[in-house]
Amino acid sequence: MTIGFTLNHENVTVQTAPDTRLIDLVRERFSLIGAKAGCLTGGCGACSVIFNRTVTKSCLIPAFRVQDSTIITLEGFAKTDAYKDIIKGFAAAGVVTCGYCDSGKILTMEAILTKKPRPSSRNEILAELRGIRCRCTEPESLVAAVLAIADIRQRRLYGRRA
Ligand code: FES
Ligand code: FES
Fold it and tell me: Best mutation site among 24, 25, 44 for ligand 1, i.e. most ligand atoms within 8 A of its Cβ?
């Protein structure tokens, strides 16, 4: 089948089998390798993309569902100021990443802060991050990173903490 969709703000078309996974489409047909093929069963989050405005595990999305959708991969998100906030927040919180889970970790953190720019509860952040399996970073460090990113973003947007 031929499917058309928007990928990182560009209209694209591709011919593929209806059951091809979205993770394979973006990596193999568009050379966007920020999303990683990890567990391929929805458990690790390494394959995450923004699919129709929602962070989604692309290993669970067959090609036939991609028709007319809007997809942002880590590469597309990396061109934004919001991405720079996150990288600065990692540095401020002392989070060192190997990069493997970055799609899941970074896009999920962005979703957390979009929903609630000043998350106040550690448990709330941990609950939002539970779909991400990171082998390099303790959950507490990821919580510290989210709080640091929130501060950095508030300063960038408003010149102060909220
Ligand atoms: S590869 Fe998709 S959730 Fe692990
Ligand atoms: S930073 Fe290495 S797996 Fe998450």
Answer: 44
Q: Phi and psi for 135 in degrees, rounded to 5?
A: -85, -10
Tens of pLDDT, residue by residue over 46-78, are 999 999 999 999 999 999 999 999 999 999 999
DSSP string, the chain: -EEEEEETTEEEEEE--TT-BHHHIIIIIT---SS---SSSSSS-TTEEEETTEEEEGGG-BGGGTTT-EEE-HHHHTTSHHHHHHHHHHHHHT----STTHHHHHHHHHHHHHH-SS---HHHHHHHTTT---SSS-HHHHHHHHHHHHHHHHHHHHSS--
Q: Is the CB–ligand 2 distance for residue 134 below 6 Å?
A: yes
Task: Give all domains of the chain, ordered by start, each with its CATH number.
Answer: 2-76 (3.10.20.30), 81-158 (1.10.150.120)
Q: Specify the ligand 2 atom closest to the Cα of 98.
A: 2
Supply the pTM of this predicted model. 0.95
